[in-house]
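Predicting holo structure, iron/sulfur cluster bound.
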Amino acid sequence: MQSITDLDFGTPRRTSKKTVTLEINGVPVTVPDGSSVMYAAVAAGTNIPKLCASDNLEAFGSCRLCLVEIQGRRGFPASCTTPVEPGMKVRTESPRLAELRRGVMELYISDHPLDCLTCPANGHCELQDMAGVVGLREVRYGYEGANHLDAPKDESNTYFTFDPSKCIVCSRCVRACDEVQATFALTIDGRGFASKISAGQNQDFMDSECVSCGACVQACPTATLMEKSIYELGQPDRAVVTTCAYCGVGCSFKAEVKGNQVVRMVPNKNGHANHGHSCVKGRFAFGYATHPDRILKPMIRKSIDDTWKEVSWDEAINYVAGEFKRIRARYGRGSIGGISSSRCTNEETFLVQKLVRAVFGNNNIDTCARVCHSPTGYGLKTTFGTSAGTQEFDSVMKADVIMVIGANPTDGHPVFASQMKRRLRQGARLIVADPRAIDLVRTPHIEAEYHLSLRPGTNVALINGLAHVVVTEGLTNDAFANERCDPEEFQKWKEFVSQPKYAPEQVAVITGVPAEKIRGTAQLYATAGNAAIYYGLGVTEHSQGSTMVMGMANLAMATGNLGREGVGVSPLRGQNNVQGSCDVGSFPHEVSGYRHISDAGVRALFEKEWNVTLDPEPGLRIPNMFDAALDGSYKGMYIQGEDFVQSDPNTQHIEAALRSMELVVVQDLFLNETAKLAHVFLPGSSFLEKDGTFTNAERRIQLVRKVMPPVTGLADWEITMALANAMGYPMHYNHPSEIMDEIARLTPTFSGVSFEKLDRLGSVQWPCNDKAPEGTPTMHVGQFVRGKGKFVITEYVATDERTSRKYPLILTTGRILTQYNVGAQTRRTGNITWHQEDVLEIHPHDAEQRGIKDDGLVAVSSRAGCVVLKAKVSDRIQPGVVYTTFHHPATGTNVVTTDNSDWATNCPEYKVTAVDVCLVTNQSEWQERYRDFTDQQEALLKQREFHDRSQVVYKAALYTMTTLNPELTTDEARESLEFLSKGGR
Ligand code: SF4
Ligand code: SF4
Ligand code: SF4
Ligand code: FES
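Done. Tokens:
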């Protein structure tokens, strides 16, 4: 357990190597040059009273509480804004200082509601604390004069309130929004007594540009900005440090808890990936863990048209084990397989692949990285030797030019986006390559120097065009490339990209990006100093995803932008543990540490540890599993935490594949779209209910700590372990740390990792071994992992998915800030306020041609299928391209996407689907079928046969209530029973 509050140095830590020694109250202290007197005082063990200062914000000097006396100086300077000087002698306490501070506090308190006892911040309010610290006992001015006590409260935000009557106008919230989040949503309006905090243009928080990151709430020293959960539940009594379970940034949090209830999530100041910041998802959207939709008991059924039957864990595990054994005996060893989850921990994922390889006896294991960053793994391993990004996030602070390709960091990786924006405001230059004008293209105080609005599917032509300019204009770093890479391959690559077909004028015809922009971008990237590439699914989810990853790697090698801070090729990986699930062996051809299963030496290691003989043949990838299911050779599947019916392309093909199987086992929190087609449901546990580790996009391994016991009785790793044992393979771990010890024993890049070390250091970035006992923030320093960097020829090949007269537009898909992936979690939180349905963005020109207006119902039809959704006319998207998200199952976005995929990895080509769009009045046929099927499945769930007595009684009560009162819906009856069970009358 952690203490709830951290030490606050008042002003930011400076990094100067030069130090300054001074005296605080006679105690000598040495701090970096540029530090404030307040910082030095805290370093010397002395807290100076303060209200407007906080060590994550630059000093502002408005509250005048932190006054000190400095020998030889007149007056009482503010310690937060006064820099240290050598030999300075500072006094922080004296009768005069005490009097001045009391005077300041008196003024504050005279305009502050005296409701401390009923205030939600009581006992946790800095204003209250400071009144105590300065010894304020009475207020001489009375409370009758002009004040702000009647200022109306703004409760518009879903998660926090703004009560201006409590505001002391310290500006911490404004600075947090500017400096930490970089949204600039808040200002101080007016002057003097009339000054007040204002969101947007004097709007409600909800109507302003605020993105609900919560940085201002965290910064506020009073109860002015306060989480609604604190009003509802009261102050927490303990805190547990854990890691966010949403995106690949991997923010560290203190889960603040009361009993077993999470009251709030506070970003951990010592988190190495987030440095105390977060986004709306990690900070506020944790309510799904206790949502009533969660299924808490195992359930089985013979057919998907049957009612579910709740069973005990023993019965469920034995049933699944028996069925897998039956299917394997009948259809052969290759007829069963498993899918590990990038939302689960490394340890859980490792056990799923162990179950498949050691117990099922094949390599039919895959993971959702198949549909997102498998080309990253392939491309970076081929060129550099490691299937992971080259940098840590902090590296961006040393970049001079940042090229963002096919990524939307402010929505997809918001905390890293804030850090990137800080660097851009410091003067780094920005290039964005994206078909859409993402927020980063123009946002307060930031403007991309180049926005390359390319046609979807033409990435490789663009990167070759950039390389053409770099090579033909002599901008390569030949010394670096010839020394660090294979010189012959470098030469061949130069000749390849120098061909006239990759000249900017030719590339402009393919990509739609003007030649001068291609030329300018290449020159900027190659000559502006440290150049860093950050990319996302707009690179990988293409038929040439792997080629593009290698194209970017080529460009970075050719310009010497690797092997140090500020440079590199960094994937912004999607799910919280997608890096980790790949690292620990979730691909059908690789065991942990990306070693091929066909390598007899590698297999021997595992065979000895696991006491089995392993199959040397790679197993089925996810799309091959579906094809094999339809062929009748793949019959049973264990799916841990993955909803591919919603997330994978060509939904109807997947539905047909699952319907043809004899055993589909889904382990998840909710009856998701895949579970609706399952025969067994094993209730999973949320990240709050287990111990383990996640690995973020920087290869950073961090602990996930149990905040409360699993409400279902078993954590996910325990379920997989029970299944292995029931199938006759002994698997025994007392704690996930023992699983990590096994991973470390078997994986050279993890050999130095242990829970003890992670606890001690906070996190480590792999490789972590004897050579790098505390991990490796920057890869390929001095030498590439594969030895010589490999230049690969990256010929541009147009995708087969072409527009035609029937399908004249290109559909490309993405995510938004408030929802996450298939939305199973975020839709079950207050985040639903911001995004209640997926909409289709269409350019005004295309809209006008079709008579489409905002909110008009439109059908989007492709060669794979058709769905209907509302239109949003927007010039963020270029003519000829339409865009939507896939957060809501009823939209069925992936009904439209096709089976086309990356040539090397089968990663689906989500980003390019030829479609037409037209006005309609009804839902599509698929959507109508979906609605009927969902109604059927929800009814089957409600009618489930309950396992234990209390559930039988519950069901009887439910039945009685709905029979006696026919107007009462089942949901209303459930709510009433819940109310009664909590003592309500
Ligand atoms: S929640 Fe975040 S974006 Fe909104 S005002 Fe506060 S700091 Fe700014
Ligand atoms: S809302 Fe809070 S942080 Fe912002 S000025 Fe008022 S008291 Fe300070
Ligand atoms: S940026 Fe990602 S990891 Fe951080 S809080 Fe948001 S969702 Fe969680
Ligand atoms: S803390 Fe220094 S002036 Fe407010």
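The pocket of FE2/S2 (inorganic) cluster (ligand 4) is lined by residues 50-53, 61-66, 78, 80 (CB under 6 Å).
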